[in-house]
Amino acid sequence: EATEVALSSTGIKLGFEALFTTPAYGSCIPTDSGAYVPSGHDMPTLTGLIPGTATPYDAAIVISEDMLNQALYVAWQGGLLCRSLADVVDFDLTTSYLALIDEELINSFWPEPVTLDVLISPVDPPWIDFGAGPAAGAELLLDVYAPELDRQTRLWGNRIYAELGLGMDLTTDGVLNIEVDFDLEQDLGITVDYNEFLPSDIPYGFTALIPDLVSSFVDIDTLAPSFLLPAPFGIGLGDLETLVIGDEDDYLGIYVLI
After folding, report:
1. d(C-alpha 24, C-alpha 79), whole Å
2. Is the dihedral of CA 238, 243, 246, 251 positive or negative?
3. What are phi and psi of 127, to 5 degrees?
4. Strand partners, 121
5. What is the crossing angle of helices 99-109 and 201-215, to 10°?
6. I need a surface site. Which of 58, 119, 130, 146 has the fewest CB within 10 A?
7. Cβ distance 19 to 35 under 8 Å?
8. 221 pLDDT band (50/70/90 cuts)?
9. Cα gap 60→169, rounded to integer Å
């Protein structure tokens, strides 16, 4: 929603606000989680110069960290991260997959393959922090269930922490690349959060299989799209610079040079 139009010696300023809501709580979200509590501060003044330099810009976009975190909070509250693995993969995960840990050990517990049900739930809302890079992060629980004694039993749980570095790059031919600095093999923090009765080798061994499992439904390249920017009347962008700005490092300034 447009909230401000102002004309000054530095140009025309257009201000926008956004409000995010969800019609219902997600199945794994506490219903007393409440509304998002804003933490934003006043937006820095646009002076016509790239902060810290004497370089004028032709256009600038300033994005609020608080606005993005509100969007993530509402997505979390609405259950975006409440998932069963079966919802996001096109195969059945069975105990045969666990044979990669120790085939003899797995066969001693499950002589015949048994389907595993993996439930995914967030520990807290995901977040974006401009002052950290910018970066985005989330912490999830993976709870593994299987039929035991004629009922679904929670066998063990893993906790996953992920933090991604974010950036932008503009090529000479006008392609804007969103950059995501993340490696599934190196950058996932995985621990065992719970174990019902199994030998510890199984839940701890499963931590080594999680990156490969996640890669079956998360494509890092799709998180880092590229866009060919329009060039009206043959006027393209010459350069683009992004800076974290504001007294609390909670705004991202994108400065465009034509």
Report:
1. 8
2. positive
3. -145, 160
4. 141
5. 130
6. 58
7. no
8. confident
9. 15
Q: What single letter denotes the amino acid at residue 60?
A: A
SS3 sequence of the chain: CEEEEEEECCEEEEEECCCCCCCCCCCCCCCCCCCCCCCCCCCCCCCCECCCCCCECCEEEEEEHHHHHHHHHHHHHCCCCCEEHHHHCCCCCECCCCHHHHHHHHHHHCCCCCECEEEEEECCCCEEEHHHCCEEEEEEEEEEEEEECCEEEEEEEEEEEEEEEEEEEECCCCEEEEEEECCHHHHEEEEEEEECCCCCHHHHHHHHHHHHHHHCCCCHHHHCCEEECCCHHHCCCCEEEEEEECCCCCEEEEEEEC
Contact 218, 184 (CB under 8 A): yes
Is residue 246 within 8 Å of 41, Cβ to Cβ?
A: yes
**pTM, entire model:** 0.86
Q: Quick one: tokens of 199?
A: 């030998």
What would the two tokens of residue 145 be? Answer: 């269930």
The separation between CA 118 and the C-alpha centre of its own chain, rounded to angstroms, equals 20
Nearest to 177 by CA among 229, 108, 249: 229
Tokens of 5: 């139009």
Which amino acid type is present at position 194? Y
